[in-house]
Automatic annotation (TrEMBL):
<protein>
    <recommendedName>
        <fullName>Phospholipid/glycerol acyltransferase domain-containing protein</fullName>
    </recommendedName>
</protein>
<dbReference type="Pfam" id="PF01553">
    <property type="entry name" value="Acyltransferase"/>
</dbReference>
<keyword id="KW-1133">Transmembrane helix</keyword>
<dbReference type="InterPro" id="IPR002123">
    <property type="entry name" value="Plipid/glycerol_acylTrfase"/>
</dbReference>
<dbReference type="GO" id="GO:0016746">
    <property type="term" value="F:acyltransferase activity"/>
</dbReference>
<feature type="domain" description="Phospholipid/glycerol acyltransferase">
    <location>
        <begin position="151"/>
        <end position="266"/>
    </location>
</feature>
<keyword id="KW-0812">Transmembrane</keyword>
<keyword id="KW-0472">Membrane</keyword>
<dbReference type="GO" id="GO:0016020">
    <property type="term" value="C:membrane"/>
</dbReference>
<feature type="transmembrane region" description="Helical">
    <location>
        <begin position="70"/>
        <end position="99"/>
    </location>
</feature>
Amino acid sequence: MDAAAAAAAVGTPAGLEEEDFAPIWQEMTGGNESCTAGLASMSYLTCLTYILEEWTGVEDIGDYLSYAFYILWVLFPLVVVFVLPGVIIILFYVSILWLHIYKRKNEIKEAYSHDVWIGAREMLATIWDGHGRIWHGYELHGVENIPQGPGLVVFYHGATPVDYIYFTARLHIMNKRHCSVVADHFVFRVPGFRILLDVFGVIHGPKEACVRTLEQGHLLAIAPGGLREALFSDETYNILWSDRKGFAQVAIDAKVPIIPMFTQNVREGFRTLGGIKILRSLYERIRLPIVPLYGGFPVKLRTFIGEPIPYEPNMTAEELATKTKAAVQALIDKHQKIPGNIFRALMERFQTQKKED
């Protein structure tokens, strides 16, 4: 195929004569005119593949390109599900940056205010509640079950505590109530988190500190399953509390009710690779969250607060712990379809009525 035919096949640009096209075509094809030889012209992609073979000297480069495109097609979703959780981490550090700016602007006011962080809590509650509404269509049900006075909120721990953050933000906006929370000791080692933990009253115990918080009239939240439940429970929503009853003793010592809580689809928003046995063994040795996390899917999240379990002076910690676990399990049975399904949880974003089966 000569330069004229090539020009006719691809269309000669305006102002460019057929004889001017020849050296360009010769340069592209390396002097070989077989790129579009035959009665039917090759596709542009086939021709480009041929040109790359000529330039690189690699034979069958089209096969390599096909493999590369296939690998990218397979890996892209995997990359996305492992990158999305980073958005939550970024939002944490945005919150921390805001707190530092707020602290700097209010250094003078601190001497004249009983709580300089009131404005900061309002702002962060608005930010996190907005994220919950937009990304997860977050809903809070049963808030009327939270007593006016102190109480111990006991909840199932998802792969991340993001549902608790949405809960406390919505509670602050709706009722102007602040809820402290007990966190694992490793959280206090995360760089830059100290100011965030101090402002929101995050504590890591011991039992005396928890009782003191409740005796001061505050709400306190705890997930008895802790990191083990977060990392190694799965879409079957197994409660992994072992024989823990310290939280029940806290409620008994402080003479406060326990409020059970569960968030629907919390395991579909974020999941872990906790099913890998070697990771479980490694966690039991070092007690750090070394299990990879993936997800960040915009599934529907609904938090349900159950009826409070009142303080009974004659009830033992073992009995109260068993009763609390049964109450949380009842919320799971009522509001969560098991096993959990990510696609179904995504589709629930379009439902107007909450599911109770």
